[in-house]
Design goal:
The chain has 84 residues and is mainly alpha-helical. It has helices at 3-13, 18-31, 37-48, 51-59, 71-81. α1 (3-13) packs parallel to α3 (37-48). The longest helix is centred in the first third of the chain and has 14 residues, at 18-31.
């Protein structure tokens, strides 16, 4: 795994509250290696969002703004729905 992916994986597992750690960290473990540059950028942008907002987007409590409603977010939602 390259350095960028390692850093993203580390950040995904150390968010702030356990629920989002499990979702984003689990997604990173299973899917990060297969993401292309666009997917990596989308994942990185999601990691830059505040925890409560990112979690609300993932579980569907809030709709993300257009620029944040990405294919990577959709993949994370599917991952979360499957029970992470």
């Amino acid at each position: 795994m390259d350095e960028r992916r390692k850093k993203l994986r580390f950040r995904a597992w150390r968010r702030g509250f356990r629920e989002i750690d499990l979702i984003l960290g689990g997604f990173a473990d299973r899917c990060l290696a297969g993401l292309d540059e666009t997917g990596l950028a989308e994942f990185e942008a999601l990691l830059d969002a505040p925890d409560t907002i990112a979690y609300a987007w993932i579980v569907g409590h809030e709709s993300p703004p257009k620029g944040c409603d990405t294919p990577t977010l959709a993949a994370i939602r599917r991952f979360a729905e499957q029970g992470a």
